[in-house]
Amino acid sequence: MKIYMKSGIRLSGIITYLFIIILASCRAHLPPKYNQKTLSETNVVDNHRDNYVLHLERSDPQTNIYFSTADETDKFISIADWQGREVTLKNRQSRPFFTIAGRQDSVLVANRLVNFKRVANFRDLGGIKTQDGRVVKWGRIFRSGNLSGLKKSEFDKFKDLNIQTVYDLRTSHEIDGKEDRLPAEIKYIHVPTVKDNEGQIAQLRAKVIAGKISEKEAKEQTTAFYKGAVSINVGSLRDLIGQIAESEEPVLYHCSAGKDRTGIVSALILSILNVDRKTIMDEYLMSNYYRRKKTEKLLGKAKLAKIIKPGMNLKAIEVFMTVDEEFMNAVFEVIDKQYGGTDRFIENQLQISKETRNRIINLLTI
Questions:
Q1: Residue 15 lies in domain
Q2: In whole angstroms, what is the distance from residue 39 CA to residue 278 CA?
Q3: Could you say which of 112, 114, 137, 201 has the lowest number of CB atoms within 10 Å?
C-alpha cells in the first residue's frame, strides 16, 4: 500500500511536471512590433486601476504642472513632488487631467488607455493633433472592446468619465451571452454595422478552429470585410457616425474586440476632424499594443488546443486577433478610388455638409 501511494505521488508529480512543460511550450510570443506604441506622444499618462502616472518629455524648472478632476480644480503640483520626469497620483477616485504650463504655452494631457480589469482596449481619442493645428478634446470620444466584463465595482469609475451614450456595433448573435454591463443611467444603443445572417461570424470562428482557413484566406476575408464597411455597409456607418460626431455629450462605441469595426469608425471620425492619415493609422495600430497581453493569452490557448486539433492554423488565428496596416489601407483605397477621396466621401457618402463638418470640428477639437 505504501509503495502504491509513493508511486502514485511520483506519478502525479511527473504528470504535473509534464503538464507545466506543455503549458510553457504553448506560450505565445508575439512579434516585437506588438510591444511598441505606434502613436507618438510627447507627454503620456498611464493608468492602472486608481493610480495615474504622468511621464514628462523633459524636466524643466520653468514648467508648472496642475491637475483637475470632477471634484478638484487646478491643483498645483510642486516640483518637489516630481520623481525625475514622472508625476504620480495614487488612489484617485476621479480621472485627473494634467495641465503642463511651459514658458510659452500649455498643454492638457490625460490617460489615453482607461484601465478596467476585464474590458480590453478602452481608450480616449483625445489629444490627437489635426492638420489644422487643432487638438481633439479629451473626454469626448471613447472607443473600446465589449463591456460584458465591466465589473459593478468599476461603475463609479465608468460614470466618472461622464459617458452618456454607449453604441454597440456588434450583431445580435455576438451580443447573446455577452451583453454589456452598464450603470442603469447610461443610454445603450444597439447599432450593428454589419449583417450576420444565421450567425456567420460564429461560423467563421468555427472554420478557423477546424483549420479550414489559411493565413492567406484570413487576410483576404479581413480585407474584404474592411472594404465592405465603407461600400456595402456604408449606410449603417452614416447614421452611427452622424450621431457620434454631433453629440453634445461624451460617447463610447465598441464592437467585440474594439479593433476592426471600432477602428474603422475611429478612422472616419478622425478624418472628419482633419487628422492626417498617418496619425489615423498610428492610432488604429495601437490596438495591437493595448491588446497584446490578451492576444498573447488567446494565442497560447490556441497553441495548446492545436495538440487536439492539429489542423488549426495559428497564423490565421493571429490575423483575426490583431490589426494590420493593409486592412485600414483597404478602407482608404475604397474611399480614394471609388468615392474620389476623403472630403467627397464625407460629404457624399456620410452626408456631412461642409457647414456641418465645421460645426463638428469646433465641437470636438480646440
A1: 1-30
A2: 9
A3: 201
Q: Is 106 found in the same domain as 80? A: yes
Q: Are 100 and 109 in contact (CB under 8 A)?
A: yes
Asked if 84 and 117 count as a contact pair (C-beta separation under 8 A), the reply is no
**What are the grid coordinates assigned to 286, written together?**
495601437
Apex CA 166: angle with CA 335 and CA 99, to 5°?
A: 85
Residue 253 clears pLDDT 70, i.e. is over it: yes
pTM of the model: 0.89
Provide the pLDDT for residue 22.
45
Residues 98 and 170 in one domain: no
Q: Are 154 and 162 in contact (CB under 8 A)?
A: no
State pLDDT tens for residues 120-136.
999 999 999 999 999 99
Domain count, the chain: 3
Residue with cell 504622468: 54
79 pLDDT exceeds 80? no
How many CB atoms neighbour CB 140 within 10 A? 20
274 Rama class: left (phi>0) / alpha (psi -120 to 50) / beta: left
Residues 166 and 211 in one domain: yes
Q: Is 329 left (phi over 0), alpha (psi -120 to 50) or beta?
A: alpha
My answer on whether 197 and 340 are in the same domain is yes
Give the CATH number for residue 105: 2.60.40
Contact 145, 122 (CB under 8 A): yes
CA atoms of 202 and 88, how far apart (whole Å): 44
Q: Has residue 53 got a pLDDT over 90?
A: yes
The three-state DSSP-derived secondary structure of 290-326 is HCHHHHHHHHHHHHHHCCCCCCCCHHHHHHHHCCCHH
